[in-house]
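Report of the visiting student (M.T.), summer placement. My assignment was to run the structure pipeline on a short list of targets and document each run. The first record concerns Thiocyanate hydrolase.
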Amino acid sequence: MTDHGSDHHHDHDHDHARTVKPMVDEITDFEVLEIALRELCIEKGIFTAEEHRRFTEFAEQIGPTPAARLVARAWLDPEFAELAVNDSLAASKAVGVDWLEPTGFGTPSDFVAFQILADTPTVHHVIVCALCSCYPRPILGNSPEWYRTPNYRRRLVRWPRQVLAEFGLYLPDDIEVRVEDSNQKHRFMVMPMRPEGTDGWTEDQLAEIITRDCLIGVALPKPGVTTNVIVTTRPATHPGTAG
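After the run finished, the structure tokens were exported:
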């Protein structure tokens, strides 16, 4: 005798298996490459799984706070400001970032040519990596998503004022905009000018208004603005039609 109940249950299992979604989304080719390379490095003894975990946790927690403190200190101390421009690595170390050993547990940075670009009343700097997404991670943390997009990378070097305007930053015509292109070995950070209305402020107070976007050069520090929220934007348009 055929057990119809068993057949029904068997069919139900097949139907269920066909409809269950995978636990994770399909991974990208880059993720497959990262996994393969990581496992090969661990197998070859280049680093251990524990060292990889520690570095990953370090990379996820770093941010622009040391850079903001560096700029704030430079605003208050002319000698330190001169050091920041002439020996950016030494100035970074003074705020706790050693570019030769940024993690503090034996993992050196692969780039040590770091330059802090000081804005002036007539020159404004903004950084980009036109080729990919080179960024001064040891002192600014991970780059924002928009910094890595072709839209930003390709257009900033051609139409910097238009791109800055899309971030809400409108600069007078008599201010020169200098776009500094980072590369595999050379990284940059912007030191904006101290804004008016901050006389008598402490280093802590000044550091609060020096946001990540100010350090990239797509924003200016302002009293009361302590986040990276873009408050004035407009749609990207062709330069010929931009207002």
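Confidence is low (pLDDT under 50) at residues 237-243. The two ends are 82 Å apart (CA to CA). I thank the supervising group for their guidance throughout the placement.
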